[in-house]
Amino acid sequence: MGGSDAGVSAALRVREVAPDTEVTMLVADVYPNFSICGIPYHLSGEVPAWQDLAHRTIAEIEATGIALRTNHLATAIDTDAKVVTATTDGGQVELGYDRLVIGTGAEPLRPPIAGLDTLGPDDGVHLLHTIDDARRLDSGLVRRGARQVIIIGAGYIGIEMAEALTNRGLEVTVLERLETVLPRTLDRELAEDISAELVKHGVEVSCGTTVAEIHRDGDQLVVTADDGTRRGDAVLVVSGVTPDSELAASAGVKVDRRGTIIVDRRMRTNVPDLWAAGDCVHTHHVLLSEPSYVPLGTTAHKQGRVAGENAAGGDREFAGIVGTQVVRVFDRVVAATGLRDAEASAAGYEPRTVQTTVDDHKRYYPGATPIDIRITGDRSTGRLLGAQLVGTHGAEIAKRVDTYAVALHKGLTVDQLLDLDLSYTPPLGSPWDAVQLAAQAWLAAH
Question: Cα–Cα distance between 29 and 49 in angstroms, integer?
Answer without folding.
Answer: 18
